[in-house]
Structure to design on (455 residues):
């Protein structure tokens, strides 16, 4: 409120300062409301932190609710001849692989040309490319007066040419080098009528041909040929990448590493959720500080439901409880993972571990049960969103109360100002009257210097 500088002029009193003090006193009524609003805002922030931790646990839990996780296979290779990756159709097993030769692309270097600037043909011509697989044979149109670079560019611009063209300087001249785009014997280029198209070639030179080859290797003694070094059909469900000649031992086995990591993430994310809830509901007696959500019923409800699910028994699996897999529920509510016990369960049968977590359907296993609970807790109508909505409604109500109180204060101060103005005027009038009477009394007989002689 702006100070009223005219108050007190008539009376000589500090009515303006008094009014400001009354204003400050009235405004102090707003502080408790502001503190309550801040408390609710802190609660909303705390609920958001808890929601983030709950969502993190939900993500980790969803990974365990995927049956494909427990059916996955991994590959390991001893030796440098191949690399491998297993797909869903692969079967566990061990394979001895002997690579005799890699697949290569056929190439053809044409007869030599002395200058890059020389025009090779004085009329339009057709460069005929021939392949081992004659279905690939193709003619490339060469415009009149083309140089060797023009021929190269024409080939590379032709999407059906099935070769890549470049120019090689062999020290005596320039050759057009054609490389098949695909590896293998059938995709190899075997001939080209370059000497017919280009009049400027050195006729005594011959084209240099390098035949394309198929990859040849053995899998457990069985001979296999492939036009490509990427082989997807030699071993069912396994993609092989031939790296070089030599021997390798390929092992395909259940991918227990991914399962182990998913379980560890599950335990870690739950403990992070528990730590977050503990921090938000804790009371530090030494410092006298309380967590933002101490005593909050929504947090207690969330912890209770999750603890109930974690302690429940799962039917239809060799493992009935989390403890059977080495996951123990501590006294403080956190989880502890015994990696040795989990490793033993995975070594015995990863499928049974999957039956415990994922079950036969999305809701049968432990992870499915938890997922249903987490969906409810994080739903727009769930306990957490309900608590956040309650705090937001409380803030709205407090804001309305703040506005009403502020308006009431303004009305009160305005009334005080009017009353003080009236008081100031009345006192000013009284002062004037007092001054007038004093003046008049001073002129009465006996009030002057000679008044004493009358006595």
């Amino acid at each position: 409120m702006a100070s009223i500088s005219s108050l007190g002029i008539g009376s000589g009193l500090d009515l303006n300062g008094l009014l400001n003090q009354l204003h400050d006193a009235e405004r102090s009524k707003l502080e408790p409301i502001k503190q309550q609003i801040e408390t609710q805002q802190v609660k909303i922030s705390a609920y958001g932190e808890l929601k983030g931790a709950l969502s993190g646990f939900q993500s980790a839990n969803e990974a365990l609710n995927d049956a494909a996780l427990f059916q996955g296979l991994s590959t390991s290779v001893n030796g440098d001849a191949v690399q491998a990756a297993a797909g869903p159709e692969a079967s566990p097993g061990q394979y001895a692989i002997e690579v005799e030769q890699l697949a290569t692309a056929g190439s053809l270097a044409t007869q030599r040309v002395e200058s890059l600037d020389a025009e090779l043909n004085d009329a339009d011509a057709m460069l005929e490319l021939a392949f081992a697989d004659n279905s690939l044979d193709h003619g490339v149109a060469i415009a009149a007066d083309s140089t060797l670079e023009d021929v190269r560019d024409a080939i590379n611009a032709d999407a059906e040419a099935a070769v890549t063209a470049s120019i090689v300087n062999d020290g005596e001249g320039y050759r057009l080098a054609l490389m098949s785009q695909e590896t293998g014997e059938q995709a190899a280029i075997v001939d080209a009528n370059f000497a017919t198209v280009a009049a400027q070639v050195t006729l005594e030179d011959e084209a240099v041909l390098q035949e394309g080859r198929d990859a040849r290797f053995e899998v457990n003694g069985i001979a296999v040929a492939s036009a490509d070094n990427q082989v997807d059909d030699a071993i069912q469900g396994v993609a092989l990448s031939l790296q070089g000649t030599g021997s390798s031992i390929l092992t395909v086995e259940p991918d227990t590493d991914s399962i182990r990591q998913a379980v560890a993430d599950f335990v870690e994310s739950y403990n992070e959720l528990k730590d977050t809830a503990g921090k938000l509901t804790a009371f530090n007696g030494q410092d006298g500080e309380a967590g933002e959500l101490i005593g909050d019923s929504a947090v207690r409800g969330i912890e209770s439901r999750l603890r109930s699910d974690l302690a429940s028994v799962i039917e239809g699996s060799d493992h009935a409880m989390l403890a059977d897999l080495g996951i123990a529920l501590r006294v403080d509510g956190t989880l502890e993972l015994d990696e040795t016990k989990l490793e033993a369960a995975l070594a015995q049968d990863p499928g049974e571990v999957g039956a415990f977590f994922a079950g036969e359907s999305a809701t049968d296993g432990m992870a499915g049960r938890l997922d249903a609970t987490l969906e409810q807790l994080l739903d727009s109508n769930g306990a957490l969103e309900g608590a956040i909505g309650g705090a937001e409604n409380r803030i709205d109500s407090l804001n309305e109360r703040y506005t009403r109180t502020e308006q009431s204060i303004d009305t009160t101060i305005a009334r005080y100002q009017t009353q003080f103005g009236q008081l100031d005027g009345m006192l000013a009038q009284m002062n004037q009257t007092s001054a007038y009477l004093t003046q008049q009394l001073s002129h009465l007989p006996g009030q002057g210097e000679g008044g004493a002689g009358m006595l």
About this structure: The two ends are 62 Å apart (CA to CA). Residues 73-102+215-254 form one domain.
